[in-house]
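Q: Start with the shorter request: fold the first protein.
A: Done. Sequence, then structure:
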Amino acid sequence: MSKRKRDPNIWEYVDFSPIQHDILKRIAKALSITFSGAVEYSLDGGLVPFYCVVVFFKHRIEASPGSRVSHEDLWSAFQAWFHPYGLKWQINAYEFAAMGHEICYYKKIALRVRGNQVYCLDVRLKQASIPSKKEGA
């Protein structure tokens, strides 16, 4: 019996609904990763929660050399940004931190720890605005 070579793009053959496929493509584009990478990271936290955090980072975080923003400030801003959508499920602070860490890695946002605080370096929060539901990532 011969061994079959594993296809590295196996996730691309999973049947997603058109909406799920569209969300995964937007995540991949926003983070400059492959479609299969978007699938992998979305499986950890859930597709919609991960997408929401990706969209939040896209719309509320901007480069600002010399600036830094703490995890607590990001978490507070995310809650204020996310609340108007009125979705039934919740993302807790731990899940947000884990998803944010992945996003920072792909967006090349440096992270630093000082005491018990985690900071994103050379970025700041943009002025609050709520993107239209069609805007997305």
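Q: Next, the second protein, separately.
A: Sequence, then structure:
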Amino acid sequence: MGYDFKCRSCATTTRAANIVDLLSIHTNHGGRFVCPKCTMTDTFIHRISDLQEGPAEKWERWIKGVIRIDSGIPTYSPYVFLTADTEGGPITGLHFHYYKDTRTQPGGRLKHGHGPGGPPVLGIEDMFTILAHLVRDGVLPKERVRAFGDSL
């Protein structure tokens, strides 16, 4: 499955052939999608999905970036899409996924989705990876996280 992401700065649309290309070629060190034309990160993937509740129920989101999780297993790659409720809006959601890439092995393939065999499995420490990323990107204020920790 390919991914088209649009740059709001220069209106260029770029296509990544699959999830591996999207994450390895088209993101910066902070996980934001990078426009190959203007190198800006005001970019997004727009998705609308049908919900199980019925054909009239839709989930519309703008994917603004990704948090990659190192599983320690070369073929298993969990990640979290950072989503917004509007094209120009702030990050408001986390959408968990993973892919398995066994293409380097005989008969291997790329399996991808929100769970080709169920939801992604994360280690406890991975929650800190996600939290650190959200604080670094300004999605969560450091003071709020500190106050939360102190309230426990």
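Q: Describe the second briefly.
A: The chain has one domain: 3-151. Helices lie at 19-25, 124-136, 142-151.
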